[in-house]
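Lab notebook, bench 4. The sequencing result for the construct came back, and we need a structural model before the next group meeting so we can plan mutations. Quick request posted to the team channel:

Model the 3D structure of this chain.
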Amino acid sequence: MPPGGETVVGKNFRFVSLLLASLSLLTATPLAADEIRSPSLTALRVDWRAALDQLRSEINSRPPIAGDFIFAPRRSVPRYDPRAMPALVQLNAISSQFFTGIARSSVPVLLPFDAAAYLAAQRNGAPPTLALSRYQADFNSVDMFDAGPAGYSASFSFEPGAGDGMPSRVFTRPVEVQITGSALLYDIADPAGGKGEPVRPLAATFPDLRRFIREGYVRYAFTRFGVAYVVSVQCLDSVAKPRRLACKEAYPVAERFLKALRIAGGQRMRPLTDMASGIIDRPAARSADFSYRPSGDIIPNTGYRNKAGHPDVMAYAQIRFPLEKAPAFIRSQSYGKRDKSEGPTAYPWRDNFCESRSFEVWQCGGGYGHQGEDIRAADCPPPGEGREPCDPKQRAVVAVRDAIVIRSAKDQAATLEINSRTERIRFRYMHMNPQAMNADGVLNGRFVTEGEKIGVVSNYLDHPAGTSMHLHFDVQVFTRDGWIWVSPYVTLVSAYERLIRARGREVGPDIAVTSQPVAHALPEDVIKPDLREGSSGEEN
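Done. Here's the predicted structure in token form:
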């Protein structure tokens, strides 16, 4: 068994634990009609002894520097004191030059960075200006790195023509490879979870590795040191094109990345604990105005192949509402004319998470949907005495939580990631002007605080005025399959109630809860994104 691999007993124990957790959710007391639940999360136990064994093997592959590391544990300090594992302290000191905050990761950080080769080269007088890609299997310097109590995330790029022995490809741009390692997993009823095919050339190193295409990414999921890791590349499961990466062209890049993975850092911390699902507290006061239709109650015949929406009673996080001020409205921007109720800036709210798009969304019928919710600010009232000035182009968008920004200068979307002892979740904002976000410094690595302004409601989709004036907001949680979309509708209902300090009224029919399958290929008859809504080739 390779260092950090799972034993059969360990796998069986984990399977039984997850099965019991799933059964407990099924047998839980039924919810009242409009009650809202928090999610259930499983905390994994990290095998740091196995991680140290692998690190020792990697360091010993370079005898000139092997004696520099102290692998003997220091028993004179508390168990979770960093000094208890001096080799990790030494490694973090080296890696932190390139991966800021790497010691904050509670799991062993696997990256395509060969620390032993780097140290050996420095010992031999290598110039400091030597490209870091030399020690990263020809991958460029890290584009994004974040580490915290639940684990870490990172992304790297691979240039066209880089790397000895790599096959030629049609795609003409750099390939971005992402990796996340997490000790915290969301427990969701996911019928498509855990599937995939083995990768035989890598089976000796990653015995449980599985490859699969899901929600626009080819993914490689595996377990090492008890931790869930997923490597992913955004791609299209179709023929190769110069401007859109085909998944078959992504395979060699992702597998080169996997072969290059080494322990780059991390630190043993107190174990995380499981988080049980529970009923969320809501304001006692009742709103005279705010009403909303049930989760899953999309406009009829707007789902993929006319399928219904997907009800989801989870508020996946307690967040601040993403628009600074009320009133605000969740209503369809693409199918609003089919809605027989009031216009786009009126109550009740209506879910549009499973409206038909060409995006894979596991929760939606047939596996395709919108990925998120469209939110509009209220129309500006007529000017009058005592009223605050109102500019429809200056409606502030704010951070929903204290979080790290994930966004490169070319991205149209901005993502906020929470990495804590109790959450591993991402929130994505779309249709704000990217040039304005660049000017405001909404870029990779920036820390934003809850309620901080990060932009304004706009209409950017590939270019200004590319869509209607609204904010698209969506949520991803981390599972053994990696980051997957979940409905943000009830999360937003809960957030809005806190903003207005009053409980809304659910109106409309009760929606039965059913499991939905997920498709991995794009059928010919799938509805393409509306010209005013959706994504470009750059953003999914």
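Confidence is low (pLDDT under 50) at residues 1-30, 513-540.
Will bring this to the meeting.
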